[in-house]
Fold this sequence. Notes:
With 258 residues, this protein is of the alpha/beta class. Helix content is 47%, strand content 12%. Strands 2, 3, 4, 7 and 8 form a five-stranded parallel beta sheet that branches. Strand 5, helix 6 and strand 6 form a beta-alpha-beta unit.
Amino acid sequence: MTAEPEPVKSARRRSPPLWLILLALVAIVAGGLWQISNLRCFALLGPLMCKVETTRPEVALTFDDGPTARGLDAVLPVLRASGVRATFFIIGQEAEARPELVKRLVDAGHEVANHSWSHQRMVLRSQGFYERELSDTETLLDQFREREVVGGWFRPPYGKKLPGLALAAQREGLTMVTWDVEEPSATDPAEYAREIVEQAKPGSIILMHVMYDANGTARAALPLVLQGLAAKGLAVTTVGRLADNARAEKEAEAERER
Length: 258
Ligand SMILES: [Zn+2]
């Protein structure tokens, strides 16, 4: 194949129209905001936690979505056998449809936290919509919690910290919680568990999905994840406990320096 000759460039090339330049700029800014909304440990707005600073060998285990009977039937016995309490980020409308499952979680000592009301892709919605997504869920969860939660947790659906959601979280007094241990895409439970354990370090927040049909690998891997973390010397707890312990550690340190 022979190369085509380079076309001769016109000397009188017209510059692109202003609207095209503006459109390109808008696309670049929107693209940048979208990228930022995906960053695990950085938010333009509102408090965000993707891990905590601590020397204690302790991590938080978090489960997103649901609750579903299938998910709870699979993981609650495993957690109980290991004496582990975890944080469940649950979807408001699913909790409303299956309140007995929320009760099961709370009765077993787990932390229930906010994962929005509808779990839609929440792009370009009104501020009122974002605020209802968070406050309706928080109001529902409060009916099950043993104690009133001040400064609770919100995990943005798909981990996307859209500015409207971040502002709503701030107004609701919620801290956005992402994760620093990514969920593996491995389909083999042993490999899935190995990848989680490898990433985990003191202060880590681990993300798992166990609620739906497609999450069989994670359900099968949970005992191996817990075994692996224990073998690495890492205790497993809730986001709330992890944050409280890290705060107490920092305060004790400040006390010593005084
Ligand atoms: Zn989710």
